[in-house]
Design a protein that fits this description.
heterodimer, A: 288 residues, alpha/beta, Rossmann fold, six-stranded mixed β-sheet, four-stranded antiparallel β-sheet, 23% strand, globular, B: 280 residues, 3 domains, 10 helices, 10 strands, P-loop_NTPase (chain B), nucleotide-binding (chain B), ATP-binding cassette domain-containing protein (chain B)
Chain lengths: 288, 280
Amino acid sequence: MTALSPTTTAPAAGQAPARPVLSLRDVRITDRATGREIVHGVSLDVTPGRTVGIVGESGSGKTLTCRAALGLLPAHVEISHGTVEIDGTDIATLTPRRWTALRGTVLSAVFQDPASYLNPSIRVGEQIAEVLRVKKGLGRRAARDRARALLDAVRLRDPDLVRVQYPHELSGGMLQRVLIAAAVAADPRVLIADEATTALDVTVQAEILDLLDELRERTGLGLVLVSHDLALVAQRCDEVLVMRQGEVVEQGPTRTVLHRPRHAYTRLLIDEHEQYGLERFRTPQEDA
Amino acid sequence: MSTPAPARPILDITGLTVRYGPRRRSRRALHDVTLRVAPGEAVGVIGETGSGKSTLARTVLGLVEASAGTILVDGEDVTRHGRRQWRALRRRGTVQYVFQDPLRSLDPDLTVADSLTEPLLVRGVPRADAVERARALLTRVRLDGALLDRLPGEISGGQRQRVAVARALITEPRLLLLDEPVSALDSANRVQVLEILKELRDAGTALLFISHDLGSVAGVADRIAVLHRGEQVETGTAAEIIGAPRHPYTRLLLGSAPTLRGPAPSSRAERDALRALLPV
């Protein structure tokens, strides 16, 4: 990430928290078609270099919450209460043009199925270069060079080859790296990863999450990790929200949520892991 | 390997190698795999994309031909069986299977009762007895007898997978082959199916449990074999594989799987070091 300052680091614990780049206050989401409220109040803050996790099954409202923050709710679905602030600006005041300018540059996202976010008939290097031309105003040659640097930064083994390949020539893990390269191309300050590693092998999942961690540490990127897997979120996030049927049933620092879960649903998720996870085989670790 | 075999294995695979494609340009999917599953034993096979785990499942079911090695099912060498012999073996019901997608093992046009009773009716079991047995099996997989009249499309995914397990059990198989049986299920259904599998194992059925998910395999399997790019890189008891993995790939796999408590199983630097040890 040559364009991003490599010296920016995550604020150490205990330090005064930086101003949030993304801030949700009691966000409620309603389906106008049915009049039904689908998400019943989500509040969270993402500060630079921090990771917030949202855990929930399908239908829990975690994806809608992300889409609300990105201004990408389906046509008949709206934020019916509460506020979303991006870098101090209430999104309710944003014009479509301002939204387009913000997406990618301040707030960006990657999703579960990377192939569906890429044009199958354009080489992946060109697709990243296009983001750079549109969002950063780079010239053709500069955009191409920068796209190559980004493919290298997401640790694709052979960026010069990948650059000229089409999406169908790449594996799922490689495609997700390309998508991450495109998502961070315009130096966003917050990246939302919604089930971004769900479809990948566990070793590839770890590679992708390691990459996001590395970007976070190096550039101060704020992360929102959304997953159905409590363990994944627990291991990577400073703060966790547990959602169920549109409700945040538990929220707090990861350690507190894991060690003193208050809601039965959180306990159920933890129990399932302890009974059928790898935990059973590990010697219990000191709770430092 | 000094693991004592408690009884004659139901499944005995030795040096199994599978190649795909024309002879000169063939691609090796599986190389020199040796596995034994005894009655009442659950053996897990762990592997990711391209590990050869699905090839292994298909070979054991006679859907893919072995290039080398032998497969013995209940003492019978099935390696060179022709299609007819395989069909006869499957009809006997000694080996049954459950796949990730229950719609692959259930006929969408047959009610649950029909799917379950068909293998018994073919053998001349009176209908009333067959239905009674189907009902008992549904109870065993924790489903209500009222589902007997439903079509697979009319019940939930979790119920469907439990029906698929019941269907596999109706012939009282001695070996149950499970290829990603819980991967498509939510957590509540996953736990239920895993519980059912443990009961089966305890009742003496041999299980070959193939999956990419270490956690669910570890919950059921006594022994685990790890496949990586067609090679059997490590085999041991579940406690050995998960508690003290030796091969870099197994260590990477374990270091990559998220766990709830304690520090991360391995650091980013450790994972990078392990990745560097594996072939590109």
